[in-house]
Design brief:
416 residues; mainly alpha; Growth Hormone, Chain: A; two-stranded antiparallel sheet; disordered N terminus
Amino acid sequence: MKKLLFGNKSIFLGWWVVFGSFLSNAMYSVTGLVAIGLFIEPMSSSLGWSVASISLGIALRQIAGTIIGPIIGPRVDKTEPRNLFFLSTIITGFSTIVLGFITNVWIFYMLYGVIGAIAITGISNLVTGTVISKWFIKSRGRALGFSDLGSSVGVIILIPVINIIITSHSWEMAWVFLGVLHLIIMTPVSFLMKRQPEDYGLLPDNEANVENELKNSDINSNKEVWTAKEAIKTYQFWIIILAFGLSNISVMAILSHQINHIVHKGFSSTQAALIISLWAIFAGFARVLFGFILEKISVRYLSFIVMTGSALGTYFLLIGNSLELLYCFAIIYGLFRGAIVLMSIIIWADYYGRTHLGAIRGLTTPFNIISLSAGPVLAGYFYDELGSYDMIFSVFIMLYIISGILILFTNAPKKK
């Protein structure tokens, strides 16, 4: 099957993969990342857990997710991802539902921090970003941009809804709602995920009927193809890991604690949810915009721009004692932070090709353990000890700047 029919028109199968990834990113961004920020305060108050103890669960989630990466990555290169998607969906959905019935912090660590993390990695951008990068070369930027737009749409729509359920009913009901919704949306999405165009007699960007189009593919052309073993021998591999690792410390901490920080400043949880929704709107716009720009401008230049822009946005969050300043945070941080994930996907495909992309990206995940887990824990610790996030957020600003500079001076590798 080379195309799917929609009415009297035919749609390139790769765009259905993008659509499925859009929905997957929408649920992953909420279930796997942002939603926990709404639960920190009510779960802490109801169960008597400290913010730091809940943050440890967030850190465990990042650790478990990164450990499983080297196993999942090569699998995406070799087999259809739909079975992985389906299994991940079922486990994630039911483990999220059970979170609405827990009273023990160790069960929270197991369900949210370990089981849920391993499961949800199967629908993360490690999978969706790798698959889309195999389906597109010329239009890779816009395809990934539209796919990543789902992350913003999910936050815009679902975060206010979850907040209403928590404030009007209970945090327990909110977890159950999120788990059931995850099952309903993601189960059919599993069947849209296809490994690569060659499996269906196509080439990337729907060029199957163009003679000698294989010359445009990084499989059979002079565009360099790197294996995972070759990639790790280049200094660029390690600089990219370091740069995005430093930024991830900031990303995950702010993602997990921004709502609690805003509430601590004296604003209501409803105002905080609306600010995050505004942030998500601009992040969605940025993902599509930078997706098109990435097809014309080097990823390292744009990475520098989005890193420094994220630092500026974090500064407005730090000093956000008024709604006006928080609106500045939402707009600026959304515009630039919203594109960081896109940059981290594109740079591996652009620098090392798409043939072994899953294996290469899978190798990078264990090195993210410290960066993805340290941020939430540090933020929770400083909040418990100092009563605010001000000092640690200042550190995060500097990490964004350092990350941007590292990427700016890292050229694509070339084989000898």
